[in-house]
Amino acid sequence: MRIPLPGELGERARDVLAGRVAPVRARDAATVVLLRDAPLEAYLLRRTATMAFAAGAYVFPGGSVDPRDSDHAVAWAGPAPAEWGEILRADEAVSRGLVCAAVRETFEESGVLLAGPDAATVVADTTGDDWEADRLALIGRTLSFAEFLDRRGLVLRSDLLKAWAHWITPEIEPRRYDTRFFVAALPPGQRTRDVGGEADKVAWLSPRSALAGAAAGEVFLLPPTHRTLQEISAFDAIDGVFAAERNISTVQPAAVEVDGQVVLDVSEVSAGIDGPEGSADEKETRP
Questions:
Q1: Which range marks the domain in which residue 102 is found?
Q2: DSSP 246
Q3: What range(s) does the Nudix hydrolase domain occupy (predicted)?
Q4: In the chain, what are the helix, strand and coil shares in percent, each to the nearest 5?
Q5: Nearest-angstrom CA–CA distance, 154 and 77
Q6: Whole-prediction pTM value?
Q7: Which residues contact residue 28 at a Cβ distance below 8 angstroms, ignoring those fewer than 6 apart?
Q8: Average pLDDT value for residue range 203-218
């Protein structure tokens, strides 16, 4: 897949390719594909038109890792950071930060909390005014996630996440993210709500509906979101998504010049997906 790069972005791409502009460092980030069943749907937010990155795009909840996300004070249940390091191909500190950021950002951007009083339970309702006050404090960075969990006597449930993909923003972009994608099921009793902020619209959409909207020009999807929805559309229920074997390869689209035009090349490489029938190998690459 090749995407034309017009205007300022195309000129920046030429400068980066020519070595006149150095790429910025990609920041560690986490994104969570929040799913619910009957039918299988994903939670999507439309970023406001004023956002500096991906304005107007429909995205999954997520964001950059806060340095405090790697704090050992974060109460933890489920696979340990070292185990996540093997899955994510990252060191223990980075993996701890990525998993914590995934849970924190999901709560900040949807009101859904993947945490509970112990390793076997999960919070049933997060819609009260006190929860909203904590959510806003987390967004404002006046409250760390470790403090939030400690105050409420909760533990992060890392077992509620499944690693899904790894995308890195192209070198030509002025804002770059090294993003791990996770999937998670909406916990029983919890519900999402329109939390505002960086999004001007939220929606539960089946992967096929979102892809159809993108094909019709009604829904703007970035390549990582499009690819992820395409993969999840192969399943009919959350159980199938979580049972799928993942051999995660890093995907990073590259800018190339073709016949005088600069385009973003999203190549196809092996991602190692077992579909619902147990054998459909799909191919994948980098954002």
A1: 2-284
A2: B
A3: 25-227
A4: 30, 25, 45
A5: 10
A6: 0.87
A7: 64, 65, 94, 97, 98, 101, 177, 178
A8: 95
Cis peptide before 79 (omega within 30 of 0): no
Average pLDDT, the chain: 88
Tally the C-alpha atoms within 13 A of residue 74's C-alpha that lie toward its C-beta: 28
Domain containing 172 — which CATH number?
Answer: 3.90.79.10
260 beta partners: none
What pLDDT is recorded for position 286? 28
What gap in Å lies between CA 181 and CA 164, rounded to an integer? 5
Residue ranges of E strands in the chain: 2-4, 27-36, 41-47, 58-59, 62-64, 76-77, 115-116, 155-157, 162-168, 177-185, 199-205, 250-251, 254-258, 261-265, 269-270, 283-284
pLDDT digits (tens, 9 = 90+) for 4-23: 888 888 899 989 999 999 99
Looking at residue 258, what is its pLDDT? 84
- Cα–Cα distance measured from residue 107 to residue 157, given in angstroms and rounded to the nearest whole number: 13
Token output for 120: 């076997």
Taking only the tens place, the pLDDT of each residue in 110-158 is 999 999 999 999 999 898 899 999 999 999 999 999 999 999 999 999 9
Q: How far is CA 256 from CA 1, 5, 117, 168, 263, in A?
A: 12, 10, 51, 16, 6
